[in-house]
Every structure is written in C-alpha cells, then in structure tokens.
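User: Could you go from structure to sequence for me? I need the amino acid at each position, not a summary. Structure tokens:
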C-alpha cells in the first residue's frame, strides 16, 4: 500500500513541475452482479369436490366441510394439524422465500348461490365462511379465507421444492337452497392459492 501511494505522489509532482495538463479518465469498468429470482408454485390436486370423500354428493346447508386427506370431511383436524389431515400439497419451486395466501370467491348461477361473508369466517343467510390451515399449524390459529385480502396462510416458505400440505374448510350458508339446481361455479373455480415474495 505504501508503494502505491508514493508512486501517485510522484506523478502529481511531475505534472505540476512541468505544467503538463492532467486529463480525467474517459472510461471506467462497470461490474453488474445480478441474482435472478422468480416465483413458481404447483399445487395438487387442483380440484376439491365438497363432500366428495363421503360419496353422498349432497351438500347440506349450515354444515362445515373439511378438505382433508383420507378422512371424513365432517370432522375437523387435530389440535396440531398433521400432514395426513391435509388435502392439498403446494410445492415452492421459487428461488426466493414466499408467502402463501388463499382466497375464494362467490358461488353463483344456480339454486345453491353463496357469497363469501368476507368477515371472521362465519356463515349467514346466503353467505358462507371459510378457513385455511397447514400441517404442523395449531388448528385454532387457522386463517380466514376471504374473496380478496386474506391474510397469509403461511409466510416465509423457503425455496427449492419445499412442500407444504394444507387444507380448507367451508361452512355453508344458513338458509335453505332456493332450488335443487346446483351452482354452476364450483369450489375448484373459486379457490385460489397465491404466492408472493416474502
């Protein structure tokens, strides 16, 4: 370091003693370091038929149905949710940590219309309530699923093929269906899981 400093001082002294103009550098090296990042998730299965596991095909009013794996849809998960009680698996193929959010819109177009209550997850006349949860979560801390603006189901899911098992529950509206005609929009068209960078 000392040798470099001395050399620079000598150049300056020579330039001053001979009055030679000193020109500024006209170019410089620019080093760009880029770390590409992207968000990519997959979710399986991509459909949920409410009450499909029990096989009755009938959806009752004022009833809670749980998207659970290999178990009846009318019993809640354990106090601490285990992976076998989850119906879906989401895989984080991103290069960054992600936050996962679940939303669900309205069911319309038939005698089984229901709109999301968008409140505390409770149901009411013509409205349904919904929650989501994931493996190893304390079930009592489940997250309200709204038509938009839901809180994160899980934040900071790490990248590189990390898998997370999860499920939802829906509490159907309190009043009777208006006819025997099914809604033309099913839960598979309305239930959405979204990933954003943490």
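Assistant: Here is the amino acid at each position, in order:
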């Amino acid at each position: 370091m000392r040798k470099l400093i001395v050399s620079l001082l000598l150049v300056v002294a020579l330039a001053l003693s001979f009055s030679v103009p000193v020109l500024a550098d006209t170019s410089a090296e620019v080093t760009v370091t880029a770390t590409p990042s992207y968000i990519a998730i997959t979710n399986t299965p991509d459909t949920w038929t409410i009450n499909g596991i029990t096989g009755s095909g009938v959806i009752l009013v004022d009833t809670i149905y749980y998207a659970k794996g290999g178990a009846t849809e009318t019993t809640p998960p354990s106090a601490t949710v285990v992976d076998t009680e989850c119906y879906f698996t989401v895989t984080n193929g991103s290069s960054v940590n992600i936050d996962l959010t679940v939303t669900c819109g309205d069911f319309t177009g038939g005698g089984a219309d229901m709109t999301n209550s968008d409140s505390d997850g409770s149901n009411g006349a013509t409205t349904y309530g919904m929650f989501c949860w994931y493996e190893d979560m304390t079930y009592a801390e489940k997250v309200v699923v709204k038509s938009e603006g839901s809180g994160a189901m899980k934040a900071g899911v790490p990248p590189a093929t990390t898998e997370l098992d999860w499920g939802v529950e829906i509490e159907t509206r309190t009043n009777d269906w208006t006819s025997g005609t099914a809604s033309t929009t099913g839960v598979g068209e309305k239930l959405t899981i979204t990933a954003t960078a943490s």
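One structural detail worth keeping in mind: The two ends are 43 Å apart (CA to CA).
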